[in-house]
Amino acid sequence: MSEKYISKAVIGRLPRYYRYLGELLENDEERISSEELSKLMKVTASQIRQDFNNFGGFGQQGYGYNVKYLYGEIGKILGVEQKHNVILVGAGNLGSALAKYPSFPKRGFTISGIFDVNPDVIGKTLNGIMVRPMDEMEEFIVNNVIDIAAITVPRDEAQTLAEKIVNAGVKAIWNFSPVDLNVGDDVVVENVHMTDSLLKLSFNLAAMKSGKWDYRI
Q1: Would you say 175 is a known binding-site residue?
Q2: pTM of the model
Q3: Element (H, E) at 200
Q4: Residue 75 annotated as binding?
Q5: Cα(88)–Cα(105) distance, rounded to whole angstroms?
Q6: Residue 93 is labelled as binding a ligand
Q7: 72 in a known ligand binding site
Q8: Which of 53, 127, 129, 137 is most solvent-facing, going by the fewest CB within 10 Å?
C-alpha cells in the first residue's frame, strides 16, 4: 500500500484539534459541526473537513462529529495512547520547568532521566528524578528504552550532544537549543526556537499597527 503524504500544516493543526475537543469533552459536549469547530478554532470549516479527510473523515452528514469519538481518533493519530520515555539533557531553568510540567504524564510522556554538567545541580532531584552527570547519558540510553531526548543546552553544545544521543539509539529529539541540528533523515527533530516565535509575534503586532499586511498568520 502506498504511503499517504500529510502536510506539515495539517500535522501542526492536529494538537489544536485535540486540545479543543478535550475541552469540549470536559464541558460534556457530545457532538459538534465543522462550522461550530471553525468558530472556536478560527480555522475555516472547509479546512477542517479537508484536514479530517486526510485520515478518513470521521463525520456524518447532517450530524457533524461525535466529540468523544473524534477526540479518541485524533489521539490515536497523535500517538497519545503509546507511552514514551523521555530524557532531559540540560537541567537549567528551562529543563527544570520541563521536568515539573504536569501535563506530560497525562499525555503518556514519562521523564526517565535528567542530565547536566553543572556540579551544583548533579545529585539534586527535579520532580523526584535525580540529575545525573552528562557523561552517564549514553550508557543510560543504552540500558533503558528511551524514545525522546529533550535538549535544553547552549547552542555550542547541542550538536555534539545530539550526535551522542542518536548514536546511543534515540530516534526523536525535542530541541530547545537555538540551533538547527544535523542528525540525519532517520531521526525526528522538533525544533522549538523561542526567539523565532517571539519575532513572529513582533511582526504580527507591527503589521496590525501599520495596517500594511494581513497579520493573521
Answers
A1: no
A2: 0.80
A3: helix 194-210
A4: no
A5: 14
A6: yes
A7: no
A8: 53
